[in-house]
Amino acid sequence: MKCKSTALLWASGLFWTVLPICTAAAPQKDYLSALEADKIRDAETPNERIRLFLTFAEDRLKKFQYEIEHPSSNHHGEMLNALLNAYIGCVDDAADTIQLGIEKQEDIRKGIDLMASRTKEFLPILQKYSTNGPELEIYKDNLDDAIEGTQDAMSDAEKAKKKVSPPPIRRKH
Fold first, then answer.
1. 9 belongs to a structural domain
2. In whole angstroms, what separates CA 58 from the centre of its chain?
3. What is the DSSP letter of 129?
4. How far is CA 73 from CA 49, 78, 141, in A?
5. What is the mean pLDDT of residues 16-35?
6. Which pLDDT tens digit goes with each residue over 93-107?
């Protein structure tokens, strides 16, 4: 009897020491909500993950624009910087997904095209605030990083278009 309880106690102790290791294996991105992270995880293709990351980036950019135009009285500067950091994270993750897709030789042409077109839409918005944004000194560093990250993602998408093989040509017999 004593042997069974000792084994049970040891096994439960092992469980509680292994559990944190298992949960640490899948880190949660701090700029994604739990629902957004689940959507990314559940996406079946790299193209779908790229689309989701760019959708979330657009959401952060729209919230940033709203926060600039309608400043809150609480933590305004922190909110602006957090939104820019979240935007940067989403764009970077979309770019990383493209690079991984290229390495794995997956069909990511749609994702690449989407990255190229969406970053072209995002860049003028960011640049507008860099020239005459209100309270620019509060978020200038993160805005500069967002502009640079967007330009890098745009450039990487153009380079990726050349690396990805063209779609197969279907011939009629």
1. no
2. 11
3. H
4. 35, 11, 22
5. 58
6. 999 999 999 999 898
Q: Which domain holds residue 81?
A: 34-163
Asked if residue 80 is part of any domain, the answer here is yes
HSE, side-chain direction, 13 A CA sphere, residue 15: 6
Threshold 0.85, pTM exceeds: no
Q: Rounded to whole angstroms, how far apart are CA atoms 91 and 118? A: 10
Q: Which of 86, 92, 110 is CA-nearest to residue 33? A: 86
Please tell me the total count of domains within the chain: 1
CATH number of the domain to which 115 belongs: 1.20.120
Q: Contact 124/65 with Cβ under 8 angstroms?
A: no
**Distance between CA atoms of 74 and 71, rounded to whole angstroms?**
9
Burial label for 98, CB within 10 Å (0-12, 13-18, 19+), is: buried
**What's the mean pLDDT in 140-163?**
94
Report the phi/psi class of residue 105: left, alpha or beta, with left for phi > 0 and alpha for psi in -120 to 50.
left
Q: What is the pLDDT of residues 113-135, one digit of tens each?
A: 999 999 999 999 999 999 888 88
Residue 81 in domain: yes
What gap in Å lies between CA 153 and CA 171, rounded to an integer?
A: 35
76-103 helix and 136-163 helix, angle to the nearest 10 degrees: 10
